[in-house]
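_Full entry_
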Amino acid sequence: MDFIFNDEQKKEILRFVRETITAEFERTLKPSIDDMGGMLNRTGACFVTLETAGDRHLRGCIGNITAVEPLLKNLRRNALNAAFHDPRFPPLEDHELDEIEIDVSILTPMKPIASPGDFIVGEHGIVMECLGRHAVFLPQVAPEQGWDRVQTLSHLSAKAGLPPDAWRRPDAKFEVFTAIVFGEKDYR
């Protein structure tokens, strides 16, 4: 069963994610959210992305591609990890709270594809595994970067620490997923 959230529920999820991060600085804040008819108690996987509000530069992005816990717990975990434990960035500081915008991507289960030709740019997120390495892009990454399929797969290979053409190897394996993607910028 897929997750379906209306605009009010998406705004509530974004508020909860922001309050979860803010509570690390304001210890009296106790983030809470309604379980939305049980949807947030269902096993689910998400990514939380933080970008600087003005120039939309990445400031943190952490998530899970496989659902292993209730979505509410996954939202909380990935909010904190994106803000404070993304190894590419220093931990978020309290003065940055007003400078970030939050996006949430709630993922569908992954499914294998027979070839990279089955990957649909802008619709699918993609995971590549090759030579013991793997990398993932969310569905929105390629359109945001202006990449076509070949460019996306080349960047995916490089992200995995492999040569840009590694995606063409016969032993490269791919899985795709879709996502419900929404952010604070959608509700200004």
